[in-house]
Amino acid sequence: MLVVDDDVTVRDVVTRYLDRAGYRVDVAGDGERALAAVAARRPDVVVLDLMLPRLGGLEVCRRLRRRPDGLPIIMLTALGEEEDRVLGLELGADDYVTKPFSPRELVLRVASVLRRARELPARDAGLEPVVDGDLHVDIPGRRATLAGRELALTVREFDLLAFLVCRPGQVFTRPELLERVWGWDFGDQSTVTVHVRRLREKVEPDPTRPARIATVWGVGYRYDGVDEPAGSAGP
């Protein structure tokens, strides 16, 4: 895995904890070195600080998301960087940890992202592909296509889509989605809102009038499908 931070102390602490957890760790001190390291050897996950010299973390995230391999990204953000954090999620980061952070929490987040990237959720193993109009979701293969074109989904986006399409008509609150999709019993509920918005941009015929992922106002979200009445727009 690759840890990207210009603070030597942060890099050393994170590396030490990840090493103790059994991970092989490379480091980079700026955005350009991070991109070069990924190009030289694809890591299993990138732990990426937003505030980097030479090339900022958001731009690094944007460029990594152009890759077709769905490389998992965990952002490190400061408390005052909420807008940047949301933008990072919109660019496709899979998770974030806010500074100052517990290294043990970061290790748990890394383990969660890797587990999602490598393993099929037991509840969805063996399921047949789900077809909703021109949207095909191959859950065992972790692929989704729209009108024959493969969608570039992050690990967390695919997990959310797979969970919803397998449970059409059921309404889930944001805390329920955090816990049941990603296994979090804590976390910022805006994470769900951001991922729903990103999914709508990728799977809806018209993201401003969603037909597949409906908002149930005051409650949460429901998957309807294109052949069902459209839900409310907006998060």
TrEMBL record:
GO terms for molecular function: phosphorelay response regulator activity; transcription cis-regulatory region binding. GO terms for biological process: regulation of DNA-templated transcription. This is DNA-binding response OmpR family regulator. Residues 1-114 form the Response regulatory domain. One of its GO terms (cellular component) is protein-DNA complex. SUPFAM superfamilies: C-terminal effector domain of the bipartite response regulators (SSF46894), CheY-like (SSF52172). Pfam families: Response_reg, Trans_reg_C. It comes from the Bacteria. Residues 127-225 bind DNA. Residues 127-225 form the OmpR/PhoB-type domain. The modification 4-aspartylphosphate is found at residue 49. InterPro entries: CheY-like_superfamily, OmpR/PhoB-type_DNA-bd, Sig_transdc_resp-reg_C-effctor, Sig_transdc_resp-reg_receiver, WalR-like, WH-like_DNA-bd_sf. Keywords: DNA-binding, Phosphoprotein, Transcription, Transcription regulation, Two-component regulatory system.
